[in-house]
Amino acid sequence: MRKHILVSNDDGINAEGIYALVVELKKIADVTVVAPEKQMSAVGHAITVQYPLRVNPFYKNGEFFGYAVDGTPADAVKLAVKALLRDKKIDLLISGINHGMNTSINIIYSGTVSAATEGTILGIPSFAISLATYEPNPDFSFAAKFAAKLAQFIFRNGIPSGTLLNVNVPPVPESEIKGVLITRQGKAFWDDWFDLRKDPNGREYYWLTGKFVNYEHEDINSDHTAVQNNYISITPIHFDLTDYEAIGKLKKSGLEEIFKFD
Amino acid sequence: MRKHILVSNDDGINAEGIYALVVELKKIADVTVVAPEKQMSAVGHAITVQYPLRVNPFYKNGEFFGYAVDGTPADAVKLAVKALLRDKKIDLLISGINHGMNTSINIIYSGTVSAATEGTILGIPSFAISLATYEPNPDFSFAAKFAAKLAQFIFRNGIPSGTLLNVNVPPVPESEIKGVLITRQGKAFWDDWFDLRKDPNGREYYWLTGKFVNYEHEDINSDHTAVQNNYISITPIHFDLTDYEAIGKLKKSGLEEIFKFD
Q1: CA distance B167 to chain A (A)
Q2: Are A98 and A36 contacting, i.e. CB atoms less than 8 angstroms apart?
Q3: What is the pLDDT of residue B51?
Q4: Which Pfam families match (chains A, B) (predicted)?
C-alpha cells in the first residue's frame, strides 16, 4: 500500500521549501500538507491553548495544496493528527524544508524541529529538514530529493521510538556533498545583543541581533561543523530533557536533606 | 555583598505568583523583575526576531515593580541580561511562580521553564518554580518561601553548569509537605483532542482540550508522581536534546552508508 506522509513547516504554507519538498514526496507517497498560514520562525514549541484555531484550504498554482492553520507548527501537527486526519494512518511526518540552518542551540528555538517533536510525541516517525543557508532564493531541489530518499529509508528501517531526526543539508551542489554523518547537537551559540533604536514617533524599541559562534571547528561530530564541512548532518534528538548526570550530583549536594520537612 | 536576583515568568508581570515570589525574595537579596506584559503560557522557547520589543516600567500598589516586555519569557530574560542589566552582575534567575504544574511533557511547552532555560544559556544559575494547581486563587506563600530557601542553597552550593532546576511545589499546607525529591522528567502525557465548534457567524473553529494521563503512579522518581505524593519535585534539566543512545543505533542501521556520495 502507498505510504502516507504528513508535511508541515514553520516558514508558512506558502514558502518555497515546503513546495519543493511536496513535489518530490508525491513521487513516492500520498502527501497531506497541514502547515501554519504565516511565517512562524523561532516560535519554539508553542501551542495555542487560549484561542481557537481556524483551518482554511490553501491553493497553489490553481490546485489544492493543503490546509493552512492560523497557529504554530506544533498546533498544525496536533490538529492534523487529532482532528483533520484522525481516521487516516500517517506513516511519517516531515517538517520543512526550512530556509536556514537548525543546528546547535538553534534547535531549541526552532519551529521546524518543534513540528517534528510534536509528531514524535504523537507516536509518528518524524524528521525535520533544513537547508543551511540564509541566501534569499536558494535551490531546495537536492534537499527535497534527499528528504524523499530518507523517507524511503525510514519506511524500511524505522526510527528508534521516542527519537526524531534533525536533518541539515549544506547549500552546495550535489557533487560537492561529502556524505551523511550521524551527529550530536553542537555547542555553537549566539553571541547576541539588542539594538536600541527610536521609532518615527521618538519611542524607543529594541531589536535582537547577533552572530553565531562555533568553537568546535575540529569536531565533525557536531551538527554545525558537519554541515560546514559539506556533510548532511542527521542528529537524533528526544524530548526527555532530564540531565541524568546532574541527578547524582544534586543528591550528593544535600539538597534533598536540607529541605526535609518532618 | 547582597546578591542580585533576576525574576521573570510566563503568567505576565501582573500575576499573583510573581508578586508573592518577589515579596519573599526581597528579604534576602536585591531583585529586578523583567517579565512579559501579558500572559504567555505554552509559548515554548519562542523568541521574537521579526519584530521589535518594547519595555515599559510597571507599577504595582503605586510602587515601581519591574519592567514589562511585550514579548515572550525568553525575550524578557534575553533583554534583561543583554540590555537592561548589562552592567550588573546577576547571581540567580528565578522564573515563576507559575500558576499550574510544569511536569513531564509539559516542560517542553512551558514558558516558565523556557525563561530559566534562556538564563542557563546565558550563563546564569537558574530555576523555574511552579505551584501544581489550577484552582483560581491559590496560596503562593509557601512556594515563595521555598524559592527563597532554594535561592540561598544555590548561593552556597551553585548548580551544575549547563543545568537548570525545574521545581514543582504541591498545593498543600506546609505541614503536609513530605520533603524534597530530586526527580527525572516523567512520562505522563496529554491525551488531547480538538472540539470542533461554530462561531456566532457560523464559521468553524477548533479548540484544544484534553486530559493528563500518568502511568507511573508507583515511581516516585517521576516529577509528576513525586508532586502527586506531596513531595517538592526538583528536576535537573538541560538543553542538549541529543539522543546519544540513538546515535549508535542509527550508525549501525546503515544510514550513513546508504547515502554515501562519492
Answers
A1: 12
A2: no
A3: 87
A4: SurE
